[in-house]
Amino acid sequence: MKANKSSLLIFAALILGILVGYVCNQVAPTPEAAKEIAGYFGIITDIFLRLIKMIIAPLVFATLVSGLANIGDSKTVGRIGSKALGWFIAASLVSLTVGLLFANLLQPGHALNMALPEAGAATNLKTGALNLKDFITHVFPKSIVEAMAGNSVLQILVFSVFFGLALGNLHSQAARSLVQTMDEVVHVMLKVTDYVMRFAPLGVFAAVAAVVTTQGLGMLSVFGKLLASFYIALAVLWTILIGAGYTVLGREVFRLIKLVRSPMLLGFSTASSESAYPKLMEQLEKFGVKNRITGFVLPLGYSFNLDGSMLYTGFAALFVAQAYGIPMSLGEQITMLLVLMVSSKGVAGVPRSSLVVVAAVLPMFNLPEAGLLLIMGIDHFLDMGRTATNVLGNAIATAAVAKWEDAIDPVDPGLDDTDEALPVADEPVPANGVA
Question: What is the pLDDT of residue 396?
Fold first, then answer.
């Protein structure tokens, strides 16, 4: 099966990357030499991620416009959007709560007893732009070309909503031809995506090998408690998310999880939600979610529904407080939860955005920003877990909204979930344009 083969290749690349990285780490005479070796792996990683970034903007634009144009009714868009945002807000609150709860229960930074850093110590992360005013202003693009060039999903989403609604409310033959053209553009972009994703195992191998080459395997034991505590919290969040999905989808949620394991593994291996986005769209289509739902809800989820990242921000902030022996009251932690809830929404497209959010929030609660230096060395491994969780959360959220909208097509029980069945999107669009 193609999907099984893809998952196997990605997993094999992950293991091979660890082994090759370990060997390179051992043979490198100095840390500087290890960094130089890792730089060569970084070339492959950068090329793969550039290919991914190349397809994100046109893929989001085409799928969103196609979905909205086929919906046509602005009231329907508002209904779907309100359901999606309701799920996103609830999931974000749950994720933050789980992170704070397990940071308090497991106390991953309790025994470090770090001395407070000198005044002015920082992490070199840009945090000044993280405020509600700038975020709201930044959501609205001043140029769609600039938004696409910068892969600003939120800005692309705003323009696509206007464009898709306008196109859906025009009933001329030319407008319907353009809708059909956008549908075909979606198919073309999915094929381009398929070509790009064939390089995924190579990108995974290089990314993991580079990290292990510079950090080695010893650092895993040094921060073993932090990693174990964080992944325990993620496991609990997964259980909650799957339970929430079960209440809406029933036993079908398990078929969904089986389908999205490949994009989850890809996101885990590369620590990049962008790398998993195209494959996640493809698997949701196989699950039966109609493109008009996926094309609208999934890009929205990539900006507002990063469950793993939400859990991480609260968890990391409390870890820093524990590491420096700074007590935080329940009231302060609840306030932090609300601040993180707002702050995290503005940096979805920023590399290492979770670190940026935490670095911005720490000074608000008199916590040393330099404390992030304690975890930046292993942040890649933490990022792997939170990225896989982001993929799972968005898959369940999209399927749940589709279920509420009765927009899940039945799947032939005779087909295996990983068979290359004819995509739902290949069905002809009815004359009235409503899928």
Answer: 95
Measured CA to CA, the distance from residue 187 to residue 175 in angstroms comes to 19
Picking from 275, 271, 313, 307, the residue whose alpha carbon sits closest to that of residue 398 is: 307
- Domain-embedded: residue 433: no
User: How far apart, in Å, are the Cα atoms of 427 and each of 324, 377, 410, 424?
Assistant: 59, 48, 14, 6
Angle in degrees, CA 400, 405, 410, rounded to 5: 80
Task: Provide the 3-class DSSP secondary structure of residue 399.
Answer: helix
3-state helix, strand, coil in the chain (%, to 5): 75, 0, 25
Phi/psi at 407 (nearest 5 deg)? -120, 35
CATH of the domain at 306: 1.10.3860.10
**Alpha carbon separation from 434 to 73, 162, 180, 294, 406 (Å, rounded):** 10, 18, 12, 15, 14
Q: Give the separation between CA 384 and CA 309, rounded to whole angstroms.
A: 10
| Residue whose C-alpha is closest to residue 299's, from 105, 68, 44, 101 | 68
Q: For residues 130 and 157, what is the distance between their CA atoms, to the nearest angstrom?
A: 20
CA distance 79 to 138: 25
CA 163 to chain centre: 25
Confidence check: pLDDT of 380 > 80: no
Task: Output the six-digit token pair for 243.
Answer: 């339970």
Query: 108 burial class (0-12, 13-18, 19+ CB within 10 angstroms)?
Result: buried
Residue 429 is assigned to a structural domain of this protein: no
Q: Contact 149/359 with Cβ under 8 angstroms?
A: no
Cα separation values, 30 from 83, 171, 212, Å: 54, 67, 14
Average pLDDT of span 152-165: 80
- The residue written with tokens 């859906």 in the block is 168
* Number of domains composing the chain: 1
Domain for residue 435, yes or no?
no
Instruction: Measure the CA angle with vertex 122, ends 102 and 306; round to 5°.
Output: 40
CB atoms within 10 A of CB 182: 23
Question: Greater confidence, 169 or 20?
Answer: 20
Q: Whole-angstrom Cα distance, residue 216 to residue 31?
A: 10
Is residue 157 in a domain? Answer: yes
The Cα 337–Cα 378 span in angstroms is 24
Its domain, for residue 362, covers 2-424
Instruction: Judge whether 342 and 132 are in contact, CB under 8 Å.
Output: yes
Sole residue written with tokens 């704070």: 100
Give the range with max mean pLDDT: 197-206, 227-236, 264-273: 227-236
